[in-house]
Each structure stands twice: as structure tokens, then as C-alpha cells.
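Let us practice reading a record.
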Amino acid sequence: MFPIQLGLKASSAPEQVASRLKYHPDVFEFFTSEVDYTADSLEKLEEAIQKVKSSGVKTIVLHHPMKYQGKRLELVAHPKNNAELVNFIDFSTQKLLDLAKKYDCKVLVHGSYELEEAELLEPFTSIEDARQYLFSRMDHFCHIGKDYIMFENGISKLYSYGNPDFDHLLAEKGYPLAYDISHAFIYLHGDNEALQQSLKTLKDHIVHYHLVDSLGETHDSLTLGHGKIDWAKALPLFNETASSIYEINLKDLTNPVEQLESHAYLKQIAQNL
């Protein structure tokens, strides 16, 4: 059975880090944004990693930024019409990998998020063409990141979990995967059976889970038990060796109560199995 871990998320801000560490998490995931990649900010992030590591947290994940200058960080971004974005993706990933290798952390990068900007696909003749380019980018990051990198699903047609053919293709490729349960559930329009099948197909390749509930319609980032995901049926399908965090929206960024409530809920589910 998958071990229920207290996995908390925060930025590198000292007050956020302190508010998580007092609960002695098993897993700590750092949210980063584009402002974290100046020399000063990277130093602060490194100090925060040192603090978390010295507190006894065994697993630390560094989450790639979501946006740069208002644009989503989509790996499919092409130098032909997004050179600056591609440069930032490469630069920020390398900086996180440097820290990950130094402190034995993992780096999480989105394979794709929502594919909101139509111009991202302009350099390609088809979705399949775009996906092959995306895979070439993932191959590159696997090459430089070795065992320190993982790729998270979004709700885009380019890189989402839940389509059986795509899941089998990913399993064949053997990428290290981060599985956001709510993203898959939203992509599948709230279909619990399809979610369970996807979790089974990709199980052996998943190294990290984002545990977050949803009504299955749009990004709602709900506390576990407040959405429609069938956790009692999903939990037994998890990879027992993977890590996990509760990626829940907080009302107060210095009080992770929604993450803690989610943990209590999942522990109860596990006890009843």
C-alpha cells in the first residue's frame, strides 16, 4: 500500500518555510516563479533548501516556474517564435538541476500545462509534429537531468494523462512522471474509472504525486474530500515508492491548514481500506 506522507508546498519565503516545517513534513515541494532566478533569489532558494534539508525532510522537490513575462512555460515553445521563452526555460531548468544535484532534490517540469497561447503551435504542421518536438525537449532534459528530473501532466491536448493510447506511449518511453491527480481528472471530465485506468497504466513510471481534489471541470485546486475524485479507489493504485504532496490553494500562505486537512482525510481513507 502507498505510504501516506505529509507532503507540503511553499515558496522559499522564510515565513512560509517555517510555517510548514513546524509540522515535520516527509516531503517538501518548493514553488518557484520567474523572480526566483536572479543571483540573489537563487541564493535565498538555496538557503531555504538547506534549512528544509537540515530539519530532517527526506524528499525535496523543486517546481519549475509556471510563467515568464506573462506566458506559460510550455516545453513545446520553439525558438522560431519564442526564443526568449525557450532561453528562460533552459536557464531556469539548469539552475534548478544544479541545486538538485548539490542537495539531492528532484526537479519538476510541466510537460505541458494548458496550451493557452495558440502561437505556441504555429511552428508545427500538426499536433503530432508538436508532440514529437516536445518529446525531443523532454529527452534533452532527461539527458542533462538524469535521475533528478520529472515531468508533470497538465490539461492540454499535448501532454495530459488519461488518454489510454498516450498513456501507453509514455509508459513505453519510460519518462519519470509527476502525476497531478486533479489535472488528469479535469482532462477526463470527471471520469473516475478512466482516472483509475490511467493510474494503473502509468504506475511504474510515476515518481511523485500531486494530491488535490477537483469537481472535474476546471482548475479548482480543492482540499481532499471537497471534490468528486474517488480517493478510496485511486489510492490502492499508487506507486508505493513515489513521493507526494498536497497541492491545495491556501487562503493564508503562511498557514497550510488546507494541506493538513487533506492529509487527515487521506489517512482516514487509508485506514478504512
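A brief commentary: The first helix runs from residue 14 to 21.
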